[in-house]
Amino acid sequence: MLNFLFLVCSCTIGRPLWSLGHSSNQNFKDLEDDEIVHVGMTHAYLNGGASEFLLDTFKVYDELEGFEGYLGGSVRKEIWGDQVWTLSVWRTESDLKSFSSSDLHRNAIKSSGRYISKIRSTTLRMKRKDVPKTWHEARSHLEQLSFKQY
Fold first, then answer.
1. Model pTM?
2. Can you give the CATH number for the domain in which 134 is found?
3. Which domain holds residue 140?
4. What is the pLDDT of residues 32-87, one digit of tens each?
C-alpha cells in the first residue's frame, strides 16, 4: 500500500517531452545532430493556483509556434504535488531572448508569478543531439542550480 501511495504521489501530468520534435517537429528534425540549439528550462514550486498556472502555461505553449526560431517545448506538473517544470528549445540565443522579453512571456509571468513560491531556471547551449529526450535528463540539468525565493 505504501508503494502505491508513493507511486501515485509522484505522478505528473503535462505535455510529453518527445513533443520537442524528436518525433514530430520538422524544424527540429531538419537540424544536423551537431548544430547548436538553445534550451530554456525552469523548475518551480507553486503555492496554490496550480490550475491557473497550468492554464497560463498551456496558453503560452499554444502560441509558441508563431515565434521565430521555436523548435519545441514541454511542460510538466506533479498531479498531487506543487512542482512544475518547463522546457523550450530555440534555434538561436536571440530567438530565446526575443521570446523571453515578449509581451506573451511577460504577461504570463505577471499572471502566474503570484502562484510561484520558488523557482530556478537555466538556459543551455547544446548540440541538437544532446537536447534532453526524457524528463529525467532535463531535470538533471536543473538539480544543480539554486532556487530563487519569490
1. 0.82
2. 3.30.70.100
3. 12-21+36-149
4. 889 999 999 999 999 988 888 888 888 888 888 889 999 988 888 888 889 999 99
